[in-house]
User: What shape does this take?
Amino acid sequence: MAQAALKPELANENVSTGIDDGAREEIAQALSAILTDTYYLVIKSHIYHWNVVGPMFHAIHEMTEEQYTNLFKAADEIAERIRALGHKAPIADAAGPKEAVVSMDASARSAHDMVADLIQDHEAAIRKMRDAADMAEDKRDFVTHDLLVGRMTYHEQVVWMWRSLITDKE
Ligand SMILES: [Fe+2]
Assistant: This one.
């Protein structure tokens, strides 16, 4: 009935795509933690973009802009994957947003320390993604696995570029 279709109702999120409820929840939890890391890096990259000074200013200013733009789009993809798994983004009790604090001292770091700090955060994010990708594949969620492989490819490239910028010996 056309009229019934127009009536707002609570969406039925009983997803039946071959991944059981428990697995979908576990994957959504892992993705929520990754979403938090991604947003955290968006904010931190932006803060360094604004506050970096010194001879590496131009490189860091440009690279952080490319990165927070990429990360912001990625956050949308990750959140939408959580929705496709039948959960709210971020899933409520994930270790995440409430614990994510970007220290304002970030702006007081030297250019070198900013890059070293970003490398550390990207690497921590990669380690978390690797575990989540492994777990998702185990549960036959190849879509999440594929999404995370793509994200790790990007983050690993970012780490290589930052290392190349601050390493002065071959
Ligand atoms: Fe800017």
In short: The helical segments are 2-6, 21-51, 57-84, 111-138, 142-166. The chain has one domain: 22-166. The pocket of fe (ii) ion is lined by residues 49, 65 (CB under 6 Å).
